[in-house]
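Predict structure. Chain length: 327.
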Amino acid sequence: MKYRHLGNSGLEVGIIGLGTSNFGRSMDFEAAREVIFTALDQGMNLFDTANFYSHGISEEYIGKALIDRREEAVIATKFGLPMEDGPNEKGGSRKHIFTAVEGSLRRLRTDYIDLYQIHTQDTATPIEETLGALDDLVRAGKVRYIGLSNFEAWRISDAMWTSRLNGYASFISSQPEYSMLERRIERDVLPVCEKFGIGTIPYFPLAQGFLTGKYKRGAGVPDNTRLAITPHAQSIRLTDDNFDIVEQLEVWVEKRGHSLVELAFAWILARKSVGSVIAGASTPAQILQNAAAAEWELTDEEMEELAQMLGEVEPSLSVQPPSQPPR
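Prediction complete.
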């Protein structure tokens, strides 16, 4: 496994990370532990979760599995999406952050969180309040680094200037949706992050499995696949334009002796500001496949050929929504 610094920080992460939103949803603890141990043995050290995933069960599985291997892992969890029905059970307020971090620490069975991320922007809470609370957690040693997810570009810039002006800990990472089929962040979010030295941790690098090549034009959605269990995403992924691109890419990778999955990871990792690519896995075999995919480095010529196939980037939206509710 190759490693990169996450943004301008000293934190090094494997270029392929493990996404765990399926822990407790489609995977029980024994299956999750097997995947976690296989990931560690392959040199993967970044484990991305959230208190929101299966209402805390994902964090519980990670904490239980890592009880004897904690120092091998970089645990990245998130807060901000609703955990309960009360008025202070979500967002970036000081009250919610302090409550949320204690719950995550308890479930993860750890004294500290390596990377604590706000799951999505909270437009109702001043960023000064959010950053002030996170800075207190860093100073207390409960959190080592902080990150953000699903933020608009101007809000990222505002947060970075706010942290600098107030002497607060700054965000070192951004977690947006990014893949060969979802590239709108190239218009504004990525340039802003690169300007401030923020590392990018893309999620949905395989466009919810569409870039595996398992979906075929005119055929039904295979059972037990990501799109089968998220039917609202089918209208976004299963379009003629996407099939046109994927069919070209399949021919292109076959000529080079690689797979579509390998290409999806290699293309994202060609952007050096990307620290790690978050990829889910349900079996050890998928972990091995993801780890192997990290070995391919695309040349400038290959990237130019791919740019021609992918076409222009879609215009950014004033509020850029992910293709499904924030992870």
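Summary: Confidence is low (pLDDT under 50) at residues 318-325.
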